[in-house]
Amino acid sequence: MYKLVFFVPETHLDAVKAAVFAAGAGRIGKYAECCWQVPGQGQFRPLPGSQPFLGCENQLEQIPEFRVEMVCEDACIRAAVIALREAHPYEEPAFDVWRLEDLF
Fold first, then answer.
1. Among the listed residues 93, 40, 46, the one whose alpha carbon sits nearest the alpha carbon of residue 64
2. Using CA of residue 91, residue 8, residue 87, residue 77, what is the dihedral sign?
């Protein structure tokens, strides 16, 4: 089991979640589309040669984003990450994948 965490602007929140859920993430027992989300503020500065969805090269940007967390079975984590990358508007989306240990 894995935990997938990603950051996404509110404009694409539902579309990215839908893509990742469709890939099999967010299932807990007999429940689907399970996640935790919280608003926050993202920050980045596009470097020369980048093609930012938002902002301008060499200018610091601060924008409202959501942090979304969900679990994902081993069998679908790769598909979930691919779906995340394809649905996300950013050239380089920020995300984490953590392996969870079964203690019980």
1. 40
2. positive
- Where residue 86 falls (left for φ over 0; alpha for ψ -120 to 50; beta otherwise) is alpha
As separate numbers, helices (DSSP H) first and strands (DSSP E) second, the chain gives 2, 4
pLDDT digits (tens, 9 = 90+) for 21-76: 999 999 999 999 999 999 999 999 999 999 888 888 899 999 999 999 999 999 99
**Domains of the chain: residue spans and CATH:** 2-45+52-91 (3.30.70.120)
What's the order of all strands across the beta sheet hosting 95-99?
A: 36-44, 61-72, 2-9, 95-99
